[in-house]
Design brief:
- There is one protein chain.
- The chain starts with a strand and ends in a 6-residue tail after the last helix.
- Strand 1 and strand 2 form a beta hairpin.
- It is built from eight helices and four strands.
- The protein is α+β, with helices and mostly antiparallel strands.
- The chain has one domain.
- Strands 1-2-4-3 form a four-stranded antiparallel sheet, covered by helices on one side.
- The mean pLDDT is about 85.
Length: about 200
């Protein structure tokens, strides 16, 4: 993990659980791009005073992911890299190399902070996304209900506010946290990032 105060924090999460080719890579893309606007809102919360640092080095991915990735299909990191070619995206796959010593996916969207609470929340969210991609599946009775929360299409950067979606009942953040976490204390540990954000006014 690398942090530059007031700029950015890069969080690398081990990708070994995602395997070399499986539905898990597909679920990772669906979760991140399907909740993209909510995640960028969370990235601007906490010590950042609700302001996001910009997308120059953490560009959204939902607009460049082909629609067929939202079907139930297998994919792998090589196919994903054909569409997400730069490391300068909110979710970077350039270090995803199964079998190598450094096989990670990198979350670049989070604002930098020296606040331990904010760093821990960012790490918890990043780990939660990868863990959900690993274990949440419709064929598993214990996770089938959570699998229904995985979006069937992208929620592109800026889309939620542009369509006045999610402004009143905050449905999308509730869906995301119910998908990622079972325990209420885990949800509470990251929810304050969303609540403290002034994302897009």
């Amino acid at each position: 993990m690398l942090c530059e105060a007031l700029h950015k924090i890069h969080i690398h999460i081990g990708a070994d659980p995602l395997d070399s080719r499986s539905y898990r890579w597909n679920r990772l893309l669906k979760i991140f791009s399907g909740f993209e606007d909510v995640l960028y809102r969370m990235a601007s919360g906490g010590q950042s005073r609700g302001e996001f640092r910009g997308t120059q080095y953490a560009a959204p991915i939902a607009s460049i992911i082909p629609s067929n990735f939202f079907r139930n299909r297998q994919t792998d990191e090589t196919e994903i890299k054909q569409h997400i070619r730069s490391r300068y995206h909110g979710l970077n796959f350039q270090n995803a190399n199964p079998g190598s010593d450094k096989n990670t996916v990198e979350f670049r969207l989070w604002n930098g902070s020296l606040d331990c609470k904010q760093i821990q929340a960012n790490v918890k969210m990043s780990m939660g996304i990868v863990h959900a991609a690993d274990i949440v599946r419709r064929t598993n009775e214990s996770t089938r209900e959570r699998n229904e929360l995985i979006p069937g299409g992208p929620m592109k950067y800026g889309q939620a506010v542009a369509t006045e979606r999610d402004l009143v009942d905050h449905t999308e953040i509730r869906r995301l946290l119910d998908l990622l976490f079972v325990r209420n204390k885990d949800k509470a540990a990251v929810l304050w990032l969303y609540a403290s954000s002034e994302w897009q006014g």
